Amino acid sequence: MAALCRRLDRTRFSPAVCCLTRGGPLEPMLREAGVPVCILHKRGRWDLGIIRRLREVIDSWRPDIVHTWLPTANTIGRLAAFMSGVNTLIASERAADVWKGRARRLADRLLTKRTRLVLANAEAVKRFLVERVGLPEGRIRVVYNGLDLAEFDASAERGPTAPLPDSATTPLIGTVGRLEPQKGMKFLIAAMAELKRLGVSARLWIVGDGPDRGDLERRAGACGVGESIAFLGRRDDVPALMRRFDVFVLPSLWEGLPNAALEAQAASRPVVATAVDGTPEAIEDGKTGLLVPPRDPAAMAHAIASLLTDPGRRKSMGDAGRERVARVFGMERMVAETERLYEEALEGESRDA
To answer: Where in the chain is the domain with CATH 3.40.50.2000?
Structure first.
């Protein structure tokens, strides 16, 4: 979303961003790009006044399009936009959210009746929305995530922005993600224990933070691999870190189109990932990485070991991944496709008027 707002053609579109709860690390980037940012400071799950406050923002901005992102905003944002009389609504679905119950899926179906387009970031997410949520296929468009490859070029590497664990000659595995159940980090820790049992030496850097961090640190110690795992927390230098990894691993239980896997390939790194939802669209199994079943530490460990012990294969997969990301997941393509869909949505409104 931030990348899109910064790159939209300003002769045709004027973006503004409203965050329900907080700004965060991307807020200064947006403001520096001249994108207005409004923060509503949502107070917990049951802050019903958030709809009124968001409606006031929409009324003051008078947008032609309201584009919502992620589940809570897709619900609250569309409700507020309906109440403000906005006719062109677009919702972005970023994952196959298996946690949604009947009530949430019913709400999605009802809200979509008044939504011009739903943007999914993978064909697998589109299938989930049609088959499991019950959204009309004709309303859904797939726009793959885009990356700025220049950020991952070796020539552009600025080095780490914060201290790192002591360097060593032992092969380095890396992962990046929120530390919560969806990302399956406990299975990667179990895979590290399996690698140790197989006699394969490796270190693991876990980049990211979240509510499961304490439990994962305790689990690493209990599995006997605590000394081989470093929890780096949230970092602003992911492109530089990606180039340090020998193998990138994504152990997710469900996904949309995983940006972290695309970023690893942009940095010319082979990927071991679970074959869930949109991940097989991001990774070509056997060409740019290896896909394994979710919740299977043994399969994950064997896939990692096969790459750690074969530098030539790592190199060829990394090169293939970089080439594919450049060809399929470029930033310019994502922005151009989204701009085209904005215009399609507005044209549909004109026809209906």
So the answer is: 2-146+331-352, 151-328
Full DSSP string of 28-96: HHHHHTT--EEE----STT-THHHHHHHHHHHHH--SEEEEESHHHHHHHHHHHHHHT--EEEEEE-B-
**CA–CA separation, 271 vs 264, rounded Å?**
7
- Average the pLDDT over each of 68-72, 161-165, 201-205 and give the range with the smallest value: 161-165
**For residue 62, how many C-alpha atoms fall within 13 Å in the half-sphere facing its CB?**
1
Distance of CA 137 to the CA centre of its chain: 23
Question: Is the separation of the CB atoms in 129 and 112 below 8 Å?
Answer: no
3-state secondary structure 158-169: CCCCCCCCCCCC
The pair of structure tokens assigned to 135 is 């959204």
Phi, psi for 339 (deg, rounded to 5):
-60, -40
Residue pair 2/25 in contact (Cβ under 8 Å)? The answer is no
Query: Which CATH code is given to the segment(s) 151-328?
Result: 3.40.50.2000
Question: What are the CA-CA distances from residue 200 to residues 49, 302, 322, 337 (Å)?
Answer: 55, 10, 27, 45
Question: What CATH number has the domain spanning 2-146+331-352?
Answer: 3.40.50.2000
Under a CB-based contact definition with an 8 Å cutoff, are residues 224 and 196 in contact? yes
The string of pLDDT tens digits covering residues 74-124 is 999 999 999 999 999 999 999 988 888 999 999 999 999 999 999 999 999
